[in-house]
Structures are given as structure tokens and as C-alpha cells.
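Reviewer 2 asked us to include a model.

Predict the structure of this chain.
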Amino acid sequence: MPHTGSCVCGAVSFNISTKLTRTNACHCSMCRKWSGGVFFGVVVPPDGMTLTGEDKLTIYASSPWAERAFCATCGSSVFYRVTADAPMQGEYHIGMGALDDASGIAFDTEYFIDLKPDVYCFAGEGRLQLTEAQVIEMFSGET
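Predicted model (C-alpha cells):
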């Protein structure tokens, strides 16, 4: 099932052609600041999405291995993309809140679990929970 979504003002929209099967929660300080809380992202392969309004995006290189994109008009977070020469290169993490319909997507991973604030927790069990060191190694290829 294709998924669609956009920023708040609609200047940037996307059409995801691949099946979305999983979402993750990121507790790192950058994601918390960027999203205003925990960032829930759906994973989209590099060739699994078409963007409309790319000229309205502002791209920020937020780390040595990734960049973040937001709408220059309304400021909405649009995606996080892995840029490092590593197995996940080019992979998008689209904010679940930007999807028009987020039903049927499993919550399977929490990144930076050792940085999660005490103020919230999620129900359920069985999710992969990765520490800061594990995430940095996974995304950047650094050890």
C-alpha cells in the first residue's frame, strides 16, 4: 500500500511506493530538539519515495553520517537521511506524523535507549533497544 504525506503547509509532499513495515523511536538529543519530543520515523529505502516541492526543503547536515530536511516555509520536519558510506546510506526516516495514514506500521526499534528521558515510556515488549554506541556504529560504520 503506498503512503502519502506532507509538511504542515503542503509545500513539500511525498509519495512512498515501498511497503512500510516498521517504525522506530529515537531518543537522541538532536531528534528530541528537532521533533519537539521523541522522533518516530518510518524507514524508506533510497529509491522508495518521490518528493514534490524539493525546492522548498532546507537541508541541514546534523552529523557526520546524516542530514535532516525541513520545509523552509512552515518549518515542519520532513525527513532524516543517512549520508555515511555505510550499509544504510541513502535511507530515509520519515516522521510518522507527516504521513496521511500511519495505520498498520509496527513499532520495532528504539534508538539511543540510554538517552531516553525518564518522563515517558512505551507500552509493550519485544522491541530492539539500541544504545548510543550501537547506533553510532550502525549508522556511521564507526566502532
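The two ends are 37 Å apart (CA to CA). Residues 3-140 form a domain with the Metal Binding Protein, Guanine Nucleotide Exchange Factor; Chain A fold (CATH 2.170.150.70). We have added this to the supplementary material.
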